[in-house]
Design a protein that fits this description.
The complex is a heterodimer of chains A (458) and B (440). With 458 residues, chain A is an alpha+beta fold. Chain A contains 15 helices and 9 strands. Chain B is an alpha/beta fold and 440 residues long. Chain B folds into 2 domains: 222 residues, 3-Layer(aba) Sandwich (D-Maltodextrin-Binding Protein, domain 2); 201 residues, Periplasmic binding protein-like II (D-Maltodextrin-Binding Protein, domain 2). The longest helix of chain B is centred in the middle third of the chain and has 25 residues. Classes of the chains: A alpha+beta (458), B alpha/beta (440). Chains A and B meet through loops of A and helix 7, helix 8, helix 11 and helix 19 of B. Chain B: Keywords: Signal, Transport. Chain B: Belongs to the bacterial solute-binding protein 1 family. Chain B: It holds the Pfam family SBP_bac_1.
Chain lengths: 458, 440
């Protein structure tokens, strides 16, 4: 189990420290019951040899290598370590690791605790636990691939955005022409104004208003749209909103040509002195007119609501949300593990303490807060420390989930170490320095774990 | 070139395993054969050669046909070994073990210098150099050279100066294939007005952005500056770089030009951006190399009808032709190896290969008429007519920390520039800072 939770890439100091130091020392304090030192050494030798080759030597050599430059011949002293703390990219990785270490273990432990306490009280507890634990059976790389898909930007592919857009569209939906806009340039009679489209010249009653729009996505053009007609001069204020683009090209800009279609369903406002005087909606051929409007000059405006894009969800894989998104995937994988450990601890809590508290009149919350959590604290600590170690060396999730363009924003120390060593930079000096830096970060938690193992042994 | 990093890594691992397994089996030392091989007199009868390249599948079959032509001519027996995607991972252990293939085909000229430094390459003999002088412009000779010795010959090219478009989108908008940059920008605007976003950029694949930059730079700054910038002899803060970036700005800074907006673009990797043009038909153009044809075909578009291309339009004075390609080198000093390189560098060898599909020759004496289809003929024609101004992909000539790593160097800065194309000066300074780190 220990191996499984610490993962294969760990500097296996705890594996080494736990079993070998503990039992080896205990017999010597008492009378000697065990074998003679020679036999003991003979038995320890294979393990010591393997540890030496696979653990001690690589660590020592990494320290040594980290003092040299990329080629391995030039001695740079602590230069590589200075680079770690002066390079902006590497500092980002340290910042990200910090976010990981602060957020991920707390979230995983909390969710694990909630699940564990809740599953105690439901009927299909085993089935529920099994499902929550299932992600542990998936390799981190596969989990990364899964979440890369979950976080896809397009709601057609990405589950996260599909859920968000579905929820959003239940409450409001867009009916307009997203990304449609007035043509750029001076000739156009209309211009963009903070998302809305307004006429450049004030319009008078009797003068038809032309509102040419371009960039309408063909699939968004309603089926009932009719070819636009050049508006006739009438009494009131009227005009045409149409898609000023002849299919196949060749139309005249800013003039209604035969084949160009009107844009039905547009909201049009007549604005005077900043006040909306009247509102109209375009017909199937894009024409509109304001009835009963006092004479005078107005600005004709298509408010921004006509051009609002459908809600597309969040950019999970963009530079801002990438780290929280990957932490989400991490929590998905590890919450089940935390739950199982905590549930085991929960089962071991003496029932009478809980009973006593309840008889004394404590509420369920008080029982949980004052009895359950304190009694569980050793288990919570195990989960917490294990998660800290896991987050410090997180690699595969970041590597797989973050698209290449946001890798610099999502980068973490372990990934940076691999990248500078082998992923093109080929600077194994700097890579070794990062490895040692990571080792130093992990070390306190390793020591904590070993100490705890020892305490439990004695 | 680098399609998928993850796939490449997996392939690399597989190759590493395979290399351990079968390294010592294939070659026997080839001591026989004294006279240099010329003419069809089978002077190399009894000689065996091993040649290693990354090609598999159809590409491998075609290359083996070329090797067979060599065998028919000289009598030497040639075996082919596939290195997989990561050529370095395959060749490294074999060089270390003292058992390299006779001839290796390297996917990047940068490796020529690297292996020359390791004394793993044999300089070409006079016969091969003479062949190169006849058939190649001096630029290619220099590209295969290290420390004033000629080691390699570029035998296969990839054409990176193309803009692919969906003909239906152009027809709907009523625009023609543009021939210069201003026309391209104008056509893009018209396509955008018609309701189709004109460009599908592969923002997540940094190498596609370097290809775009290289074309614009080669065209605006000219081949001499291109060579200097390739070697970092002029800084990236040079005004010529600013000009190129400002040109790129014209097509990337308009929101309506990018399919799925900036955020969507930044998450699109290489084959996906092609399928946005030919698969889901959301965009009109994708700027990438000849190998887009393969992806377009997989998206269900017929190359030549639905999927068309035009040469990268002139931005400045030079019509840009940027090539990628493979360099053949000798790793053993055997007459057989030299004879094979001479054959591959010759007009004769190039024409055998050119008649097979999927091949483009950098050899100026291989007539484009040899190519089996119209598309390749046109591509070949642009290479021949560009003559001395053809250049090799700049990012593949740079140290890979600068020109070939996700999230680092030129890839990262150009991605940042695509995300926020307003700050040309800041991008230049960032590029220079990264270049300084990589070239020190």
């Amino acid at each position: 189990m220990t191996e499984r939770l610490d993962g294969p890439q760990d500097p296996p100091a705890d594996v080494a420290g736990g079993p070998s130091t503990g039992p080896a020392e205990t017999p010597q304090r008492k009378r000697r019951l065990g074998p003679s030192p020679a036999v003991a050494i003979a038995f320890l030798l294979p393990a010591a040899l393997l540890l030496g080759i696979w653990v001690i030597y690589p660590i020592v050599y990494s320290v040594f290598r980290s003092l040299f430059d990329a080629t391995g011949t030039g001695f740079v002293g602590l230069g590589n370590y200075t680079t770690i703390f002066s390079d902006a990219g590497t500092l980002t990785t340290i910042r990200n690791n910090l976010i990981w270490v602060v957020v991920a273990p707390i979230v995983v432990t909390t969710i694990g605790l909630i699940f564990a306490v809740l599953t105690e009280r439901i009927r299909w507890a085993t089935a529920f636990k099994l499902i929550v634990f299932m992600p542990m059976a998936v390799s981190l790389m596969a989990a990364g691939v899964i979440f890369r898909l979950v976080y896809e930007e397009s709601p057609d592919k990405g589950l996260a955005n599909a859920v968000l857009t579905t929820v959003h569209d239940t409450f409001s939906s867009s009916q307009g022409y997203p990304e449609a806009r007035p043509r750029g340039g001076d000739q156009s009679p209309v211009a963009d104004q903070g998302g809305a489209v307004v006429t450049k010249q004030p319009a008078q009653a009797g003068q038809p208003v032309l509102v040419p729009i371009v960039g309408v996505k063909p699939e968004l053009l309603p089926g009932d749209a009719q070819p636009a007609k050049a508006p006739a001069a009438g009494d009131g204020l009227s005009g045409t909103v149409w898609f000023d683009f002849t299919p196949g090209g060749g139309g005249t800009n800013n003039a209604v040509d035969g084949a160009e279609k009107g844009l039905p369903g547009m909201t049009v406002e007549a604005v005077r002195d900043g006040q909306v005087a009247a509102t109209a909606t375009t017909a199937e051929d894009g024409s509109f007119s304001f009835a009963g409007l006092p004479a005078g000059s107005y600005v004709v405006r298509l408010p921004a609501s006509n051009f609002e894009a459908a809600y597309g969800g969040l950019s999970w894989l963009g530079p801002t949300l990438i780290t929280p998104a990957i932490i989400g995937a991490f929590v998905w994988v590890w919450a089940g593990f935390a739950m199982v450990l905590i549930a085991a601890g929960l089962a071991a809590i003496p029932r009478d303490a809980l009973e006593a508290a309840r008889i004394d009149g404590a509420t369920e919350w008080q029982v949980f807060r004052r009895i359950t959590v304190p009694l569980l604290s050793p288990v919570l600590l195990v989960v917490f420390v294990t998660m800290i170690i896991n987050t410090l060396k997180v690699f595969d999730l970041v590597f797989i989930i973050a698209p290449a363009s946001v890798q610099p924003q999502a980068n973490v120390v372990a990934l940076e170490m691999w990248r500078v060593s082998f992923g093109g930079g080929n600077n194994q000096g700097l890579g070794s320095a990062l490895a040692i830096f990571l080792l130093i970060l992990v070390l306190p938690f390793m020591i904590m774990n070993i100490r705890r193992f020892r305490r439990e042994d004695t | 070139m680098r399609r998928s990093r993850a796939a490449a890594i997996l392939a690399g691992l597989a190759v590493a395993v395979a290399a351990c397994g079968n390294a010592p089996t294939t070659t026997e030392p080839t001591a026989s054969g004294s006279a240099p091989a010329t003419g069809g007199d089978k002077t190399l009868e009894g000689v065996t050669l091993e040649v290693a390249a990354k090609w598999t599948g159809a590409e491998q079959k075609n290359f083996e046909q070329v090797l067979k032509a060599f065998t028919d001519k000289t009598g030497a027996k040639v075996t082919y070994a596939s290195t997989g995607e990561d050529t370095g991972a395959y060749l490294g252990p074999r060089i270390q073990g003292g058992n390299p293939p006779d001839v290796a085909i390297l996917p990047q000229p940068g490796l020529v210098q690297q292996y020359a430094d390791q004394d793993a390459l044999k300089p070409l003999n006079d016969a091969v150099i003479k062949e190169i002088d006849t058939n190649y412009t001096p630029y290619w000779k220099e590209l295969g050279s290290a420390d004033d010795k000629v080691y390699g010959v570029l035998i296969k090219a990839a054409h990176k100066s193309l803009v692919w478009y969906r003909s239906q989108a152009f027809e709907d908008a009523g625009v023609q294939a543009p021939t210069n940059w201003d026309e391209l920008v104008k056509a893009a605007q018209t396509v955008a007005d018609s309701g189709t976003p004109p460009f599908s950029f592969c923002g997540a694949s940094g190498w596609t952005l370097t290809d775009l930059f290289e074309n614009v730079y080669l065209s605006t700054a000219g081949p001499e500056n291109y060579d200097k910038l390739s070697k970092h002899e002029i800084p990236w803060t040079d005004p010529t770089v600013a000009t190129a970036l400002e040109k790129i700005q014209q097509i990337v800074s308009k929101k309506e030009f990018l399919v799925d907006g900036v955020s969507g673009t930044m998450q699109t990797d290489f084959p996906t951006c092609v399928s946005k043009v030919y698969g889901t038909k959301k965009a009109a153009m994708v700027i990438e190399a000849d190998f887009v044809a393969v992806e377009a075909d997989q998206s269900g578009a017929k190359v030549g009808e639905e999927a068309k291309y035009f040469p990268f339009p002139k931005v400045g004075d030079t019509a840009p032709v940027v090539l990628g390609g493979d360099v053949a080198v000798a790793m053993k000093d055997s007459p057989g190896a030299m004879a094979l390189l001479q054959f591959l560098a010759s007009k004769e060898g190039g024409e055998v290969w050119a008649k097979l599909p999927g091949y483009l020759s950098p050899n100026k004496n291989v007539s484009p008429d040899n190519y089996p289809d119209e598309l390749t003929k046109q591509l070949g024609q642009t290479i021949v007519s560009a003559g001395d101004t053809v250049r090799y992909d700049m990012s593949d000539l740079a140290p890979s920390a600068f020109g070939g790593t996700d999230g680092k160097g030129e890839w990262k800065v150009l991605q940042d520039f695509l995300r926020d194309p307003t700050d040309v000066k800041g991008a230049q300074e960032a590029l220079e800072a990264e270049a300084k780190k990589a070239w020190k």
